[in-house]
Amino acid sequence: MFTGMYPHNTGVCSFDDWAHHRTWVQDLADAGYWCTNIGKMHMGPVRASGGFHERVVVENPTKGYLKSGRDDDDWGRFLSHHGAERPNDRHLTDPDWREKYQGAVWHLEEHLHSDVCIADAAASWIRSHQGDRPLFLQVGFTGPHEPWDPLPRHLELYDDRPMPKPIVRDGELSEKPLQHETHKRRIADALANHESGIDMYSPDVGDIERMRRHYYAKVTTVDEQLGKVMAALEERACLENSLLVFCSDHGELLGDHTLAYKWLMYDQVTNVAMIICDRRAGSAAQGESQDLMSLMDVGPTLLEAAGIEIPTRLEGRSIEAYLKEGQTTPRDFVYCEDNFQIMMRSTTHKRVYYIGQAEGELYDLQADPGEQVNLWGVAQHTDVQRQLIDQVLLWLAASNYYNAGYKQQGPPICKRNLPTPETPSLTGPPIDRRPLDL
Asked: Topology of 32-273 in CATH?
C-alpha cells in the first residue's frame, strides 16, 4: 500500500524487508509535509523510516522481539515501564488456550492495551505538536488482528447478542485448491509452537459465536480509541482543511469456509471498507459508492489532494473525482497478490490464479456471493475462465512495462511509449500516465 506498487514489481511477496523501496510518504515529505507514524506499519526492517520524520513503532501484540534477542517495539517498552510484559506464549501458559479460539479478554489495566496505547500516543502527539508545516499523520491500530482481546466492558456489550452464521458448505474445500486445506492444517499445527495457532477442525457453533463476539468487541475497542484521536484533532482544530482516510489492510474469515485468518482471496479477506472524510473548504460530496477501488488508490488520492504530481510508479488511481462529485470511469477489475496467488475481481466474477499449478479458483459472484462453489475447470465456464486469464496477462504486462523506469532508479515521472493509431512506432512520443483501465 505505501509503496503504491504490486509485489511483482517490488519483489516483496510476504513479510520481506521492503523499506528500501520509495514510498508515497517520501513524496509528501519532499513536498514539505511533516510525516508521522504512530502504531502498526509492518515496516521491514521494523525501525526503518519509510519516509516518516518520526515514528512510534507498535507491531502485533504477540511479537517475541526480546526472546529472539532483538530490541522491543515501543509498546513493549511501554509495558516494561509499567512493570508488565507482552502477553506471549499463552499456548504454553493457559491450559484452555486451544478452546478459546483466539478469544481472550484483555487482562491488564486498560491503558496498557496496545490499541489504547496507540490512541493515547496519537492524541498526545496531536495536542503537543508545535510545527507549522502541513501534516500527514498515519495511525495504525493493531486490532482487530488476533488475538481478539477486547476490553472487558466492550465484550459485555455483545453478551447474548445473535451472531451472523458462518458461510459454510459441506465438502467445499475438497473442490478448491489444496492451499485451502493446507492453510487450515497449518494454523492448527502452529499451536504447538506459537499462540497464534488456531484449530479450525474442532469448533462447534457456540465456539464460532464466541469467537465472533470477541472479534466484534475488539472492533468496538478500536472504534472507541479512534474516537480519542478524532477528539484530539477537533480540539486542535486540525480537522479543518483536512482529508481523513479510514481503511484496513485485510479482513478476517472468522469461521467462514471452516477457516480463520487471511492468506486466501475470499471477499471476507480482500473486500474491506474505505471511508473518506473530506473536511476541505468547499467540499460537499456525501454518499456511498460500490465501484471497485483499491488500497493502491490511497497514495495517489492523497498526493493529488496535496497538489503533488503523482509519480508514474504508483499503480493506483486517484479517487479525488468521487470526493468532488465529478465524472469518473469505474474500474472493470481490481487485483491482489500474495505469495504465489494472483486475484482478479470484477463486479460479477473472481478468479484466483496459483502460479505454477493447474488448479485455481473461479466464482460467479452474482449466483454465488459466498464463494462456495468453485467453477474452475467446469466446462460451461471455461470461456469466462479463459477471458479472465487473458485479462491478467494484459494487466501484468502493462504493470511491468510502466514500472520499468522506477526499477531502473529513474526519476519520479518516468514516461513510457504508448502505441496509438496515430503514433504506432516503438520510438513514438512517451506519455507520463498509465491508462486508467490498467
From this structure: Alkaline Phosphatase, subunit A (3.40.720)
